[in-house]
Design goal:
Layout (H helix, E strand, L loop, with lengths): L1 H33 L22 H4 L6 E7 L5 H17 L3 E8 L6 H7 L4 E6 L3 H6 L6 E5 L5 E5 L12
Length: 171
């Protein structure tokens, strides 16, 4: 009978240790999840929205045609890579008649030159303190964000990466 009591005591201790370890693992996983980087996020106007009147035309002189707005920030860790990808795709986009406007938001003391230099081959680059007038006008809350407006000035595609941006096929 004492052997049975000893076995129950050992099992009780083993279950208690297992419970403590499981609790510690769950706490650690929750801490990791709270500090996990969610990646780039974009919040902009819904598809089908009209291009805000005058916001881009006064900067670019654009009167018609498709437009790709690309929003970047000097504090965004994803933006340099996406800026480079946009610059590499710019020739094909311009061949399809797409005008590209890159908006780079910055905070005081941040160097905008490196990002602007990468983006210049893609098209016009505008810098503004962030969140700036254009980010607010277009409802963009995160960078990078890409907004593609078709010939009629209607938002036809949006995304957080230029490679995943689904642009309509032009005839």
């Amino acid at each position: 009978m004492t052997l049975l009591y000893a076995l129950v005591a050992v099992l009780t201790v083993a279950v208690a240790v297992d419970l403590l370890l499981t609790t510690a693992v769950i706490r650690r996983l929750r801490a990791i999840e709270e500090h996990r980087d969610p990646g780039p996020a974009a919040v902009g106007p819904p598809l089908g929205s009209a291009l805000p009147a005058g916001q881009v035309d006064r900067i670019t002189g654009r009167t018609s045609g498709p437009l790709l707005l690309a929003f970047f920030s000097t504090t965004c860790k994803y933006c340099p890579d996406q800026a480079d990808r946009l610059a590499r795709r710019a020739t094909d986009l311009r061949r399809d008649g797409v005008q590209i406007l890159s908006v780079v938001t910055t905070t005081p003391g941040e160097d905008v030159a490196a990002l602007a230099t990468v983006l210049r081959p893609a098209g016009q680059v505008v810098t503004e303190p962030g969140p700036g007038e254009l980010m607010v006008a277009f409802g963009v809350l995160g960078t990078p964000t890409f907004l593609y407006y078709d010939d009629g000035g209607i938002l036809a595609a949006s995304g957080t990466t230029v490679d995943d941006l689904r642009l309509p096929v032009r005839p």
